[in-house]
Amino acid sequence: MQIFIDSADAAELKALAETGLVDGVTTNPSLVAKAGRDFFETLREICAAVPGPISAEVVAQDAKTMIAEGLKLRTVAENIVVKVPLTREGLIACKTLEDDGHPCNVTLCFSAVQALLAAKAGATFISPFLGRLDDGGQDGMELIREIRAIYDNYAYPTQILAASIRTGAHVRDAAIAGADCATIPPAVFKALYKHHLTDSGLEAFMKDWKATGQKIL
Ligand code: G3P
Q1: DSSP code string of 48-65
Q2: What's the pLDDT tens digit per position in 33-59?
Q3: 155 C-alpha to ligand 1 centroid (Å)
């Protein structure tokens, strides 16, 4: 599964990318507002730090302006993916941009039939929002399973990008359900490689090694 980071904090993304484990980045208008910096400057820095797909979201509500915004965003770097909302206009923009060779991530997906339409619009990525469904008392992971089944039934190449991830368990379950990618907040990503038994086990190994008095280098 590809690991994307859900953030617009260019400095933090650069540090996380140094692990070699980051395949891409997703941003959205709220994350850009939180970062508090110039959008285009931030995107340029992120695209330079992470070689994979970097989602940058349009803010227009009509297809024509979404397409114009998407084309402008695509001038920032080759790895920009245009993020459009799952609305009638967003799907029209997605189809037009994808037909012209510009990859799109259709965001704010909350149902399997929405995901079916995004695939028909030729989306490169579909972003179902797991956490927000869970917040509302629904089962976000069931949506991933439904989309996986539909896309496999018809061999749609649209990649399932599990979004609105809140926990490591979300990442695990999205991987089991067959999501192609998960976009993970920085704090959740940093927690993924932590386990208290790893820490205590390493401490014991180091204590025993020191007692041997030997060196490797
Ligand atoms: O970037 C889209 C998505 O991951 C947002 O997550 O936590 O705001 O529901 P959240």
Answers
A1: HH--S-EEEE---SSHHH
A2: 999 999 999 999 999 999 999 999 999
A3: 27
